[in-house]
Amino acid sequence: MSVTFELNAEVRTDVGKGASRRLRHANKVPAVIYGGGKDPVSLTMEHDKLFHALENEAFYSHILTIKVDGKGEKAIMRDLQRHPSKPRVMHADFQRVSATEKIHMNVPLHFENEEEAVGVKEQGGQVSHNATDVEISCLAKDLPEYISVDVAALEVGHALHLSDLVLPEGVELVQLALGEGHDQPVVSIHMPRVVAIEEEEEAIEGGEEAAEGEEAPE
Fold this sequence. Notes:
Blueprint: E1 6-11, H1 17-25, E2 28-35, E3 38-46, H2 47-54, E4 64-68, E5 71-82, E6 89-96, E7 103-112, H3 118-121, E8 126-129, E9 133-138, E10 147-150, E11 159-161, E12 172-173, E13 185-190, H4 193-215
Parallel strand pairs: 1-4, 2-6, 7-10
Antiparallel strand pairs: 1-3, 2-3, 4-5, 5-6, 7-9, 8-13, 9-12, 11-13
């Protein structure tokens, strides 16, 4: 079942550092919503409800419903400021979305079948994640919660690149639109460093023994 997120907010007319400080002391978060052909509006949100929503990974890549004084607006989260040492949200930015305009969003990658991958199960390799999310472009209705990356067939010494990802319909990768040079790897499998060193040493020793055998008198 698809996850939905709805946050209540109130219009904030008292702005400035002092006003924001007073809001935080009252366990509220100063925020702003902008875009969509409308003027920016300063908002106030309940801290604990926003903080709880942020614990869900899907919140960061979903179309949210921001109810401003009871009227819902569709938006995505664009920026979030956290306290450097305390579990506190200091400020949040939201951007309104249109049903007819494409949006750019970073969505997480979910890696599947890592333990069953050929390079891991049969060849003793280790999986390395070269990326944890990707930037996509799509209409709001096509925004995926995440993109799956199946590594079952991946072997040691090989990698899956952006162009190998299976994307939902209507979704494009922003980096690939920039050209072939931007087709970066997202996951690879390599031999553990200790094993690689041991194999290299064995190869060297084998070469030395073969050389000694050639030099030995008949």
